[in-house]
Amino acid sequence: MAFCGQCGRHVEDGQACSCSSGQPPSNNPYPPPAGNPYPPPPSDPYSPPTGSPYPPPPTGSPYAPPPPPPPPSGNPYQPPTGGSPYSPPTGSPFPPHGGSPYPPHGGGHHPPSMGGGGSGGGFIASMQNRMGIGDPERNITDCYERGMQIVPDNISATEGETPVKQYNLAVLRTLFKLERAEGRMQVTNKRVIFRAPGRSIGGRTTLQHEFAIDEVAGIEAKRSFRFSLAHFLLGSIIIGLFYYLSVLLVMFSASETVTVGVILGILLWLGGLVPFFLVRKKFLIKLMPLGVSIGSIFPVRGFNSMAEMSARYSDDGAGLYSFLGIVLLTLTILTAIIVIFGLFLFFMRPSLIVKIKNKAGLTDSPIDVSPWGVIFREVMPTDETERAIREMGAVINDIQKLGDHGVQKWINK
After folding, report:
1. What value, to the nearest 5°, has the Cα angle with vertex 298 and ends 292 and 299?
2. Which of 243, 246, 276, 303 is spaced 20 to 30 A from 352 at the CA atom?
3. Within a domain: residue 326?
4. Within this chain, do residues 323 and 362 fall inside the same structural domain, yes or no?
């Protein structure tokens, strides 16, 4: 007896098993499965099925989903074809951060409504805008135009015009009107320009003179000192104020003991004289301690006079007090001379006159930088005034005679 190699059923010798024909045996209700019932898994046992296990409904079925409608041609919500989906439209009034004209992303000035970013100058500009003083668009900028060239930064250049030299020439001021301006002189290959931007109590001011360089015949310059009534009144008020303050201080200290008042008066007198000899060119600062010095010596003389009178009535000998009185009188006179000299140094202000002469021989100068030509009470020199006086005539003469060669000479110098 033999066994089938596939199903294991007993077969007769020389006969074929019925399982080879693909039909299940009639007498075995539980035939073993054909082949290996546990095939090895594929490389990815969790790979998703390639298609849906449910076939799609037929085309004409009522359960088939309708096809999506095409988008309308004028859809306003259609996404952009290129670039960032969040880029603003072309005509948007709100530009991106990179091109914003205002800080912190941009490089421009703060708008007037922002007050210049919260700085001290911005606060003043904001208050000027609220009070209606000056031009709101110009309040936030530097009213003196420092560090800028007249041509082409402040005024337009003519055809082929080249800036050659520029000098910070003068400071213009009128104390009674609270006006101040900073004047600059520029020489180009075609013009000589004087421009003085500044400020006043009502807002910004601008003064400008210009003349063709081919018509310039010469330059007149003068540096001197002039009397200033405003500084004389201001210095007198300062001296008088500190004079009375020192007198009250010495008298108050002597209310308990006269000796304390005398000692304090002598110390204040000496201390008020020291800054006059040590402080350089700060004449306003010198006037304050000088007022204290002259004010503190007078009470000391008064105390000495009272002591001298008491000594004479008591026959105690007034010789010492008489000698001290002469010494104190001499010191008072010397102190008064120093105070007057300090006041003189304060109200005698530096003055500058620069006039550009023309070839026509007219009496009026085309460019007149003086208290009469610029309508300012004071025209004071700066640190560059002397260099401007030395160079300006040579610059103009070389440009007139040498042309472009003279221009390059002074540009490179």
Report:
1. 100
2. 276
3. yes
4. no
Cβ atoms 198, 331 nearer than 8 A: no
Q: How many helices (H) and strands (E) does the chain have?
A: 8, 10
User: Are residues 339 and 389 both part of a single domain?
Assistant: no
* Rounded (5°) CA angle 201-207-211: 175
- 118 Cβ contact list (under 8 Å, min separation 6): none
Residues 396, 311 share a domain: no
CA atoms within 13 A on the CB side of 38: 0
Tell me whether residue 342 is in a domain.
yes
Task: Write out pLDDT tens, residues 247-301.
Answer: 999 999 888 788 888 899 999 999 999 999 888 888 889 999 999 999 999 899 8
Q: What does pTM read for this prediction?
A: 0.57
For the chain, what is the domain count?
2
Do residues 166 and 182 touch, judged by C-beta distance below 8 A?
A: no
Q: Edge to edge, what strands does the sheet with 216-227 contain?
A: 216-227, 348-358, 367-369
Neighbours of 37 (CB within 10 A): 7
325 and 401 fall within a common domain = no
Answer for the pair 323, 350: CB distance below 8 angstroms, yes or no: no
For residue 115, is pLDDT > 70? Answer: no
CATH code of the domain containing 165: 2.30.29
Opening angle at CA 72, ends 71 and 78, nearest 5: 70
SS3 call for 143: coil
User: Last residue of a domain, which of 327, 348, 369?
Assistant: 348
Cβ-based neighbour number of residue 3 at 10 Å: 11
Residue 24 within any structural domain of the chain? no
Q: Which position has the token pair 């409608």?
A: 69
Q: Are residues 251 and 206 in the same domain?
A: no
Asked if 193 contacts 185 with a C-beta cutoff of 8 angstroms, the reply is: yes
Residue range(s) defining the domain that contains residue 394: 150-217+358-412
